[in-house]
Design goal:
The protein has 261 residues and is α/β, with parallel strands linked by helices. Helix content is 41%, strand content 23%. A hairpin with a 2-residue loop joins β1 and β2. The longest helix is centred in the C-terminal third of the chain and has 16 residues. The structure holds adenosine-5'-diphosphate and magnesium ion. The site of adenosine-5'-diphosphate has 11 residues, from β2 and α1. It is a peripheral membrane protein. Keywords: Amino-acid transport, ATP-binding, Cell membrane, Membrane, Nucleotide-binding, Transport.
Amino acid sequence: MPAIEITALHKSFGSLEVLRGIDLTVAAGEVVCVIGPSGSGKSTLLRCVNLLEEPTSGSIRVAGIEVTDPDCDIDAVRRGVGMVFQQFNLFGHLTVRENVTIAQRRVLKRSRAEADRIAAENLDRVGLADKASSYPAQLSGGQQQRVAIARSLAMEPQLMLFDEPTSALDPELVGEVLAVMRGLVADGMTMLVVTHEMAFAREVASRVVFMDDGVIVEQGPPAEVFGKPREERTREFLHRVLEPARVSETEIGAHLTDGTA
Ligand SMILES: Nc1ncnc2c1ncn2[C@@H]1O[C@H](COP(=O)(O)OP(=O)(O)O)[C@@H](O)[C@H]1O
Ligand SMILES: [Mg+2]
């Protein structure tokens, strides 16, 4: 049974159609990286998977359960799906330990002792065993994001969704978060990851999905999508993100020579 099975998914905000017929299956144990330009619908797609956005039409199954079915116990589905966002959304007035235990205690009804034990395990997993008593403001962005990952892992999800988890970080802090994510890949976690980190996607993805303008333009093994993309739109996007300096110089150069600069 696939971890996620999305069929003919459409999502509109008013008259704006943001997802225009998405079909995507993620097998258990797969790491699928979604790339594509800003505004192409990547976050909306991820948010539809655990119904943070309600699809306009189409079907989404998570571990075989139809989440768009009005009778579905969406809270039960969400408990099995970890989500990590660009913004870490930690509680500033709670310690790291409390941030990692609060949902365990409230949602999973774990005892304080058990929740503390599982928090300690997962803080260790993200390399922050020594920060349990710190407050978020005392941590770097990379450390805060690792706490957010530990918080998700403490719920023992079957599946993790990541929406640009390193985009809000200073460049020198990106690596530590990617290292934690590599660890999850090595542990066999099923992951759907929206990312701009092309080298990371190339290295860890079982499959890369390129989205543009609300559709999946192409998908395949990373070596194919990055190495020999079939679609012009994919080539153009990769060219822009992989060589931004050169592309912008070329564009500025064109402006200079046609006198519009
Ligand atoms: N809640 C919302 N209300 C209205 N428009 C939205 C909402 N969320 C996203 N959009 C619009 O949907 C489009 C796709 O957004 P998003 O899924 O965030 O793209 P991406 O993550 O690829 O940058 C954008 O045009 C965005 O402005
Ligand atoms: Mg987004």
